[in-house]
Amino acid sequence: MASYKLLLIAIPVVAVLFMDFSIAFAQGQGEQAGQTGQYIYGRVEIWALFYRLMVIAFVIGAILMGVIFYVVYRFRESHPKNRNLPVRSTEGEHH
């Protein structure tokens, strides 16, 4: 169970770190671009960042949908392990 929690935490962290490294490399290229005559267009970089983040969002969304489907399917009322459970009477009990 702890490995699932670690995995669910690690996926977004790795995605954010990947984004940070790619932005840092893009900034480094911008400093060198002045020397070579190439320019980095901010509009293009913003859209590239948007698309990367959308891909990450879709992957995380797909993982969450899979986890929710598993939980709903596993703990449904008609699951064989949930049949024939002893029924406790709560009449007369005070809590």
From TrEMBL:
Main location: membrane
Domain of life where this protein originates: Archaea
GO CC annotation, single: membrane
Alphabetically ordered keywords of this record: Membrane, Transmembrane, Transmembrane helix
Membrane-spanning segments: 50-73
Subcellular location: Membrane
Designated name of the protein: Heme/copper-type cytochrome/quinol oxidase, subunit
Organism: Candidatus Nitrososphaera evergladensis SR1
Lineage of source species: Archaea, Nitrososphaerota, Nitrososphaeria, Nitrososphaerales, Nitrososphaeraceae
